Amino acid sequence: MPIIFNKKQQVFHLKNEKVSYIIGIEKNRYLSHLYFGAPLTSYHRVNQAYLVERSFAPYFDPQDKNYATGTMLLENSTNGGGDYRVANYQIRNEAGQNFADFHYDSYKIYDGKKKIEGLPSIQGDKITSLEITLVEKNQQLEMILVYNLMEDLGVITRHTIFKNYSQNKVYLENAGSCLIDFPDSQYDFLHLYGSHASEAHPERFPLHRGIQEVNSLRGASSHQHHPFAALLKPETTEFSGEVFAFHFIYSGNFIIQAEVDQYETTRLQMGIHPDTFEWQLNPEETFETPEAVLNYSNEGLNGMSQNFHQLYLHYLSPKFWENKRRPVLLNTWEGNYFNFTEEELLQQSQVVKKAGIELFVLDDGWFGKRDSDHSSLGDWKSHKKKFSEGIIPFAKKINEEGLKFGLWFEPEMISPESELAKNHPDWAFHLKNETQYQSRNQWVLDLSRTDVQDYLIEMLRYYLSSGAIQYIKWDMNRHLSQVGNEIMPPLQQKELAHRHILGLYRILDTITTEFPEVLFENCSGGGGRFDPGMMAYMAQNWTSDNSDGPSRTFIQGGYSYLYPPVMMGAHVSAVPNHQLGRSASLATRSHIAFFGNFGYELDLSKLTPEEMEQVKKDVAFYQKHRELFQFGTFHRLENSWQGNSCAWLIQNEKEAMILYFNLLASPHRPLHYLKTKYLFNDALYENQETKEVFSGSELNQAGLLVSPYSQDFVTKIFHFKKV
Ligand code: DGJ
């Protein structure tokens, strides 16, 4: 059993070959955090923190002044009893008091892992679980800390369950998922920040005293801050050193905080953002928080990424798509925007077919009167002027040409100029007598309502049961504001933001369970909701609305900290690029897109015959090596944000592809050796272009000489096969 309870030591030890995580029971009352790091054979409290009386620290027992929660290294915060650091929970009772003192009660260890009610979670066979129950005797409340250990990865997941056994209501003002106290503060904080069309930029800085946090209050996980943070030892690099990473399986408002206190300890806390949350917990009711992923690696950031990639591919992402090859696609958006006719699309689809592309995705503009982004969201009926016979007959025509068909939806939204808004003015979030703010000319449907959820489920079911749609792009293009309705009682209005996400998950769960073979692509103006919560339902994500190849080395590179290439949509688009005006070569655009889920997003019929020939070759090349590109092991070798180049390696047992990208040309062109680091040292590899043979160890350690380039934004693909 990889989780053991040592009765004598009063410790729980979660342990596999990659990680140990140790929790102590202190005097049968509070839980201490004792260790998180490289695996230990066994543990005997060697590093037990010395409990000492500290000034200004409240204690519960005057005979035992050293036992004060405010100065201990804890596994969970306490509430109102003198632990002044950031809290993982806060409970108000009907008397308006904020003191809830949970004590250790019991534990359970079992094989497997339970689902979290209404929320996406890690699932799989090779998991062992621990539940530690804490009890608040006076108020008859229970808090269960749930831990799950993956057998083969340096990963533990955590979440919290609150139960109310009393006859009274209580209010969860804060219900966090994970809290852990580190004994020191010598760490760098790493997180991913960004904006629309510029997602996932890593920022790393040494922890400072006080609180540093990333969060979202936008109703979605957001482009601005990813629900991820890691603590790194200062010496940690991409290739070596310790990483303690935290990622949240949730798509709504979140907070991740690291607090360095007066004694130089560091508290890490993660959960739903309490500013836009409260939950009325009635007698006999239970509340489960979303799940937190805790990832430990002593092999640097690439080691951390390997843990995340394996976890999300095999324990989170839809099972049907786990090992299924993804089709090469053409998306109509940048090639047409809203301006197209059925005839034009049919002509384009013929060119698409000739290029060897397999899936034709019709993006925005096919429904209602949707000729711009000013109307029709919610009116999910074919645009009559564009599709005289309707969208399903059109989809069938595409299928008959031998192409799969994909369709765009933005189900969570409603245009003020729509039939749906006229018929159901109360279905959008709104505050009584207040202006409903718009963004991209739209409002947000209130998915906390089951009637709205059911409407969307029925609508999607109608389209998918036609059998003519093999792919859905699920978009979401604005954040929440004026979150309110007239249904929830005033004291429960703060539940709406979370209930909205639960409603979204119910829709996704229902539809993806009914139609598992349909490939769903998650999107929120690109990566605005590219989080593990959404990835539990959708096998891939449109990575960014910025389709410029060179920019994608930053964006895909940033997201590669967390997700493997097969989860990231990457399309070749036209030049000059529509977002940046940059004109990278076709080779550069294709090479960078190979390291994602490959596709095109332009009108192919506007290409020159030479370009079209190249497109055919590129599609065929990707298809030939699809298994490697989509399911190989990915490593970052060089990062655009750290120098003048980017290099990525993807490999399997037989072969490897390496992307080298030169950002800007330089006049002095220093020699540049690209060290592949992760090839099999003892193997011999043949360069498929030059037929030269090198050992893995020389490629890894001495490195490939990458030509000093005299042009900006040049790429080269190296293809090595084991001999
Ligand atoms: C935002 C998406 O990110 C784009 O790819 C495109 O689908 C547009 N929405 C359509 O409105």
Task: Describe it.
It is built from 13 helices and 38 strands. It has 723 residues and is α+β, with helices and mostly antiparallel strands. Strand 22, helix 4 (391-400) and strand 23 form a beta-alpha-beta unit. The longest helix has 19 residues, at 496-514. The protein is globular.
List the topology elements:
Layout lengths: L2 E4 L4 E5 L4 E7 L3 E8 L51 E5 L9 E9 L15 E10 L4 E10 L4 E10 L5 E13 L5 E8 L2 E9 L3 E7 L8 E8 L10 E7 L4 E7 L5 E7 L6 E3 L4 E3 L2 E7 L2 H16 L13 E3 L1 H4 L5 H13 L4 E4 L28 H10 L3 E6 L3 E2 L4 H5 L19 E2 L5 H15 L6 E4 L21 H19 L4 E4 L9 H4 L4 E3 L6 H11 L8 E6 L12 H9 L2 E5 L7 H16 L1 H6 L1 E6 L6 E7 L3 E8 L10 E2 L9 E4 L5 E3 H6 L2 E2 L8 E9 L1
Helix pairs in contact: 6-7, 9-10
Bound molecules: (2R,3S,4R,5S)-2-(hydroxymethyl)piperidine-3,4,5-triol (DGJ).
The site of (2R,3S,4R,5S)-2-(hydroxymethyl)piperidine-3,4,5-triol (DGJ) has 11 residues, from loops.
Strand-residue proportion: 25-35%
Spatial shape: globular
Biggest sheet features:
10 strands, antiparallel
DSSP summary, beta strand count: 38
Supply the helix-strand structural class.
alpha+beta
Terminal CA distance reads 41 Å
Summed over residues and divided by their number, the pLDDT gives a mean of 97
Low-confidence stretches: none
Ions and ligands: (2R,3S,4R,5S)-2-(hydroxymethyl)piperidine-3,4,5-triol
- Distinct helical segment count: 13
Radius of gyration: 27 Å
The amount of helix comes to 10-25%
